[in-house]
Design a protein that fits this description.
- α7 packs across α9 and α9 crosses α10.
- It is built from 16 helices and nine strands.
- By secondary structure, the protein is an alpha/beta fold.
- The protein binds zinc ion.
């Protein structure tokens, strides 16, 4: 059964239409018409949907190609009022190897960042796990603009202002596109690897811009820098991300690298450090996971990112700690920190001084499983309490009926009337005994069930952040939240 509801459809399409800066007006119209033939599949089973309309979620699948690579457009400034001219490949732009495998993979990452930003924005609108693919062979992602000027360096306008580009095909207005600037007088312009890597670094800034949707970008202080620079945390985050991004496509020998004699606060301001850590996370896990975390929380520093990454993927915590140690001369995080993390008794370490951090288990499946298991344990324990109190009442009842029987036996044993009472009392005692035995067995079963549930609960806690509920059901509620609100800072 396939349901299509208007509100969902309209929210998707209006979102796309509002995101004209991503796709361009023409593209938005094209996607809009494509949506008319979009297949909407309920994520849950139809019968579940019938039972509970709240579970009626839709997955929108935008069919066809997302394989075309982003366009690289070289432009040249015409005046100071935002007019540019598209230039065809010339002697300088030919020096930027846009067709090399490495650059193509950097450009593919730029597309990926736009796709993930779009998918996460759908998730934020209440559409779970959308798989977004764009229709038509036309290019749907923003082109990459490379402005050639007479400078002697390369940089990136993280969020280019309104510009007009004049080309053979006419004039095009571009909103908020990141523009990579390349100076004709850049040193080493004859070195293809250098040019490609520099361009990939600048694409890295464009990727970041896309992941932040051009908003709430870290306060970049700008200026010259090297991988060994110790600048502000936001500067380190911006440049470290771009360095990582270039290194992930070019396999630069500078990375990954370790740092000696640096304290943890310096690490948070070191672009080379976070670049190395990101490169390892990319290799060990995936680029997508890095991008997803960035889209969701828009980190302002390396610490912001790492806190959320560990909170999101608690099973990776020990690997992330190993990576962090590797690039901090085995100094951070230290054993005390790791032990406290594993025990779930970590104090707040607010090294970047912004007073906030990710609480463990946020957006993670593991704590919600824990919570469910804790609820099961709680339920079992409540049943045990009920059964125990029933057994206690049965026991008292047995005592009473037994003394009743003794009383009749001793005082009225000759009367036939008493005999029938004795028989009835004995029958009641037998039944009560029978009930007592079966409920006692049930209690043993519940105890075993509780034990198993507690074991399962403990097995879930492989990151050690939660403790098992107490056997006493009175305080089992609190024990699941031992780590709520605790903060990881590095
Ligand atoms: Zn940069």
């Amino acid at each position: 059964m396939i349901h299509i509801t208007y509100p969902y459809l309209s929210s998707i399409t209006s979102h796309i239409l509002q995101n004209e800066s991503y796709f361009g007006i023409k593209d938005a119209r094209l996607i809009f018409s494509s949506i008319m033939i979009v297949i909407l599949i309920p994520i849950t089973q139809p019968d579940t949907i019938m039972k509970n309309s709240k579970l009626f979620y839709l997955v929108a699948i935008f069919i066809l190609s997302f394989s075309s690579s982003a366009e690289v457009v070289f432009i040249e400034r015409l005046d100071n009022s935002g007019n540019y001219r598209q230039i065809q490949n010339n002697s300088f732009s030919d020096k930027i190897p846009t067709q090399s495998t490495e650059m193509k993979s950097a450009i593919a990452g730029y597309e990926l960042s736009q796709k993930i930003a779009f998918e996460r924005s759908l998730v934020a609108k209440g559409i779970p796990t959308p798989s977004v693919k764009f229709l038509s062979s036309q290019k749907k992602t923003k082109p990459l603009y490379i402005e050639v000027d007479n400078g002697d360096w390369a940089y990136n306008l993280m969020n280019g202002k309104n510009i007009q580009i004049i080309s053979d095909k006419g004039t095009k207005r571009v909103q908020g596109a990141p523009i990579i600037k390349f100076g004709r007088n850049i040193p080493n312009s004859g070195h293809k690897h250098f040019m490609g890597e520099t361009c990939s670094h600048e694409i890295g800034h464009a990727v970041m811009n896309a992941l932040y949707s051009g908003k709430n970008l870290p306060k970049n202080q700008g200026g010259e820098h090297t991988i060994d620079s110790i600048k502000s945390p936001s500067f380190a985050w911006i440049e470290g991300f771009a360095e990582y991004y270039a290194a992930s496509t070019y396999g630069d020998k500078k990375f990954p690298r370790g740092y000696k004699d640096r304290n943890s606060a310096e690490l948070n301001s070191s672009e080379g450090y976070i670049a190395s850590v990101l490169l390892e996370l990319d290799k060990n896990f995936s680029k997508e996971d890095i991008f997803n975390v960035i889209v969701d929380i828009k980190p302002q520093s390396p610490a912001d990112f790492l806190e959320e990454y560990i909170a999101r993927y608690p099973k990776r915590a020990s690997t992330v700690f190993e990576i962090m140690k590797k690039y901090s001369n085995e100094e951070w995080p230290d054993e005390t920190f790791i032990t406290k993390y594993n025990q779930g008794s970590l104090p707040t370490l607010d090294l970047d001084g912004n007073g906030t951090g990710a609480s463990f288990g946020k957006d993670s499946e593991i704590p919600s499983q824990s919570k469910k298991l804790a609820q099961k344990i709680d339920k079992t324990q409540k049943q045990m309490t009920e059964v125990s109190s029933y057994l206690a009442r049965l026991s008292k009842f047995l005592d009473r009926i037994y003394s009743f029987k003794q009383n009749i036996y001793q005082n009225y044993s000759n009367s036939s009337f008493a005999k029938s009472y004795l028989n009835r009392a004995q029958a009641m005692i037998d039944r009560a005994n029978h009930q007592f035995n079966s409920y006692q067995k049930y209690l043993v079963q519940l105890r075993q069930q509780e034990k198993q549930q507690i074991n399962d609960f403990n097995d879930l806690q492989d990151f050690g952040s939660l403790s098992a509920p107490s056997y006493n059901s009175n305080d089992s509620n609190d024990s699941t939240n031992n780590n709520a609100g605790q903060v990881l800072r590095y």
